[in-house]
Specification:
By secondary structure, the protein is an all-alpha fold. The protein is built from ten helices and no strands. It has one domain: Growth Hormone, Chain: A. The radius of gyration is 19 Å and the shape is globular.
Length: 240
């Protein structure tokens, strides 16, 4: 009886929240697997130095910053679900190219492309979840999604760690392909999600300005974004 009560409490607030949590797990599984072995992959397989890897990540971070606004406009123009699925497919394609990179220029090009496509996915994911989840379930649902992210990154790091422990270049070569497959499954899962209200808006509806102050006039949002960005810099450190 106690176990049943605990399981009921652990359930997501809705089936949609459960599907979104599963999507978060898929994303983090692929991303976590590659991040764990990425430093060794870039240095041993591609032949880059640690300084080159760090410089490439810097270029990619700058590109992501510059792409944030235009990617958000694409989400507004074409709808979050479509752009989210497109981003997941594009990221899968980027991971599939990694095994063929042989120099620093190719690495930078793919890293920049990955971050730009990721910026599209981030904007679309945020817009979709806020749009599709009922206000009374939004906080709890997103908490489940973050928990699923943590589980996915943990599982991904375990898979990447096993690949590193084997000390085989063939296994390291397989890491991007595993991540590619995970992102393709993720893209398919996204495409099967229900449409959000924003996806059904007309071109005229999308031209209407949303009431309220813009983000640059929202101190709370600016501070939260700033500190969130500081905390997330550990992701760059994990690949350098």
């Amino acid at each position: 009886m106690i176990l049943d009560a605990a399981l009921r409490q652990a359930r997501p607030p809705s089936p949609l929240a459960g599907r979104l949590s599963a999507q978060s797990l898929l994303f983090a599984l692929g991303e976590g697997t590659f991040l764990t072995g990425s430093a060794v992959f870039f240095t041993q397989i591609v032949g880059l130095s640690a300084a080159q890897v760090g410089l490439g990540l810097t270029f990619a971070g700058i590109a992501s910053f510059l792409a944030a606004l235009p990617m958000g406009k694409l989400v507004d123009r074409f709808g979050p679900k479509k752009m989210w699925s497109l981003s997941a497919t594009g990221q899968a394609a980027m991971f599939a190219v990694w095994p063929f990179i042989t120099d620093f220029q190719g690495y930078v090009a793919m890293a920049v492309g990955m971050e730009v496509i990721g910026a599209l996915g981030g904007a679309a994911h945020g817009a979709y979840t806020i749009d599709v989840l009922p206000p009374e379930e939004r906080v709890k649902s997103r908490a489940y999604m973050y928990s699923a992210l943590n589980v996915g990154f943990t599982l991904g790091s375990m898979i990447g760690g096993v690949a590193l422990a084997i000390e085989s270049n063939k296994v390291l070569h397989a890491l991007p392909w595993f991540t590619t497959a995970a992102f393709l499954v993720n893209a398919a899962a996204i495409s099967r999600l229900p449409r959000a209200s924003h996806d059904d808006r007309t071109a005229e509806d999308r031209k209407v300005r949303i009431p309220g102050p813009g983000p640059l006039r929202n101190p709370g949002w600016l501070l939260t974004s700033f500190f969130g960005g500081v905390f997330w810099t550990n992701q760059g450190c994990s690949t350098s």
